[in-house]
# Entry
Amino acid sequence: MGEQLIFERSRPGRRAYAQAPLGENCGDIPAEFRREDKPILPEVSELQVVRHYTRLSQENFSIDTHFYPLGSCTMKYNPRVCNSMALLPGFAGRHPLGPETHGQGFMSCMYELQEMLMSVTGMKAVSLTPMAGAQGELAGVAMIRAYHLANGHAERDEIIVPDAAHGTNPATATMCGCKAIEIPTDADGDVDLQALKAAVGPNTAGIMLTNPSTLGIFERNIMQIEKIVHDAGGLLYYDGANLNAILGKVRPGDMGFDVIHLNLHKTFSTPHGGGGPGSGAVGVGERLKPFLPVPVVGKTEEDGKGRFHWLTEEEIPQSIGHLSGFMGNAGVLLRAYVYMRLVGKDGMKRIAEFATLNANYLEKRLKDVGFEIAFPTRRASHEFIITLKNEARTLHVNAMDFAKALLDKGFHAPTTYFPLLVPECLLIEPTESETKETVDRFVEAMVEIREEAKVDAEKVKGAPYTTPVRRLDDVKAARQLDLAWRPGSPEAS
Amino acid sequence: MPFIPHTEDEVEAMLGEIGAKSIDDLFDEIPRDLLIEDLTGVPDALSEQEISRLMRRRAARDRGALCFIGAGAYEHHIPAAVWDLTTRGEFYSAYTPYQAEASQGTLQTIYEYQTMMTSLTGMDVSNASLYDGATSLAEAALMSVRANRKSKSRRVLLAAGVNHMYQKVATAIAGSQDLTFERLPLDTNTGSSDLSSLDGDSNAPVAVVIQQPSFLGTYEQVDKLTDWAHANGALVIAIVNPTTLSVLTAPGDWGEAGADIACGEGQPLGIPLSSGGPYFGIMASKEAIVRQMPGRIVGRTTDLDGNPGFTLTLQAREQHIRRSKATSNICTNQGLMVTAATIYMSLLGPEGLRRVALTSQQQTAKLVALLAEIEGVDAAFSAPHFHEAVVRLDRPVGPVLEALAERGVLGGHDLSKSFPELGNALLVCATETKTDEDLEAYAGALRDVLGT
# Structure
């Protein structure tokens, strides 16, 4: 049974007195603009608020409390110090429009972050402003489009997207006024090169690729793909969702990519926060440098000392423009900066190595206990896919049932039913920060669930049993919309 | 090894299980010549103590000044409980609530947020947030095109007091889908939109955007503009400051029929200024157009036992289902910021938020009165203002602001580039965080700078 709604604890006239100015005053708001009704905000004490949200937090699974092998999301440990440094008063209290003279500390971190990201990606310039991976994608495709327009090729408006791609890729192409052209994956999980050759042409703007792909394997033909797309006059976009797999080992810039977005909340361990804030910094090669979104931090030397300043559309006149009200998710960028400095040069490579070690170990263990690996001939990257189509057929429990049953075993579920082209799939990403014993325990849990299904499939299909609520009626949620509480709404519990 | 728990024995055992000789073998599908040896641009690792020392030194460089800048981001008192609770690991390190049963904390918090935000804006539905205020306008404009099927126009008409940066961002994001943004002229006496040009406007826009209070701290004629828009087949998009909604008419009550979409910057609700982010974007609307709304939405439903619970809903609008036909490419919201804002609004309650709004107004009014006493400084507009205000100087603003900064006062936002028609105009803001002594300190510094 869940926690009451905060509104149900409300009593007229109750307040958290310490939290607002004490003196009464009445402003001179003209009557025509004055609000007449009292908004529905709870009238509760400070202790009630603290208890309520503490209890709500306890209804969550999180990295700090549970193994969270959510494929494609890189749910690794978020070091606490990254948060405490970003919330230092000098950083947290700085107004975004404050003068550069009162921002040199912050701006020096941002400049160095740009430099480090250039180094790990092999790109020539970086803009930190995109506020999430999807906005990084938008920036990237907008730059590709701006490049073609600047070269007089308005007809280049087709973005090629493999069928295994994240949904954000084709959605981004649409937002940028382009058409998404889907191409298939071959039986081994690589891009179908014949289909790619057939798809490119005079209308090709570029291709969006994730490498390693969402299938959890490295795209082996990357250099052929690079040649096919560049020869056709298109550019290559790298979706950085899976950068954790190759950090410090291979760089998108060396693979010939023209533009890349990074998910700092994945690779550089800034918090996922229950669904954001993310941060989707973009890096570019020489060709796309003139089109970077602004602002970017620049540096000049004065009297032997570095001085940092903002570069805006005045300095980068062909820029695709501003993508946020100020300069993006600055506090997230600070967390990423601290993380990168803690991990350091050698640590970058170790991230990819141990993420890959954990994934390959877990894959092998699951295979040995009889689960089917989706791409058994391939080496796993930092994640891999198992397909439960046999279990669905013979035991009548599907991937979603396994996912829910895992919650009762104390594990967050892997990603389910993505990528779309593998039936009954779980996409599993253990990350480098998990111990061998946690990974072993996960294998045991999977085996236990399968055994339980052999005895009583219905019981597994009824999971979870130990969470604050059981399986929810999604159809009812969509048909009988209840998106906000109002006085007279049914009680929560 | 930072944040990696493996012992050497475990590595050996795991490699043995895999059947690999070394970790390098695990990268054998990557073309050899692509592998790199060294990252020259990343320094060696620091310990937590070393990075803390470095960061404390840098943070200290940026603090200490009295800040009177608003212009879209506002310094308000943030109760200690807000970030203590928000950074609990169960909120901080969870992800998008795909597994609803394991994410009821996040989901219920968002449902409570949606309740508060719909009530503040006078709307039926709210999403779980967008990136920030500026992008919320871009998404609201795109949504208005989808929702207003009767209109053939892709022209969005902005009131004169809409934040110029919002227009730039909306153009960058929505421009490639052929949306154009135009502005009503500014009445430089009142600081509000000049509505006289509307009568001759035969080319009806798809939507009219009204920011209230305006970027200049003035009131727009929201009822008149809303009714004009609806009479001409346009939807109305409100840009709001949520703090002020505790005392100002909700967009849902503007004019005869109310605004159709409300968007804006959520930062004033307990989010640190933090150089511009992370903040969150507000997005609320009438229920009739909820299926055109971008972003995550949480709904209340029941579980197998009939107990109430919360889940993501209306997902058929979103990119992971609809791919290229989704309402937006947005994936995450700004979940952690919404958590903080919900806790903030719970702590403040209706009376607390009202007091914050009115005290901010009072302090800004006092500041303007103090500054206007100085020779060479005048209040720019005859009309009443709210929350922030424009003063006009007798000389260029930039050098004055620099000189003030040297005296430890960040004196406001220079309007000479975004609103050149106002001359040497300066946007100032004093929230409840500024005491009367702070206001005196500003006035004293300005006197000093102007030599009066």
Observations:
- The CA atoms of residues 78 and 270 of chain B lie 5 Å apart.
- The radius of gyration of chain B is 25 Å.
- The mean pLDDT of chain B is 95.
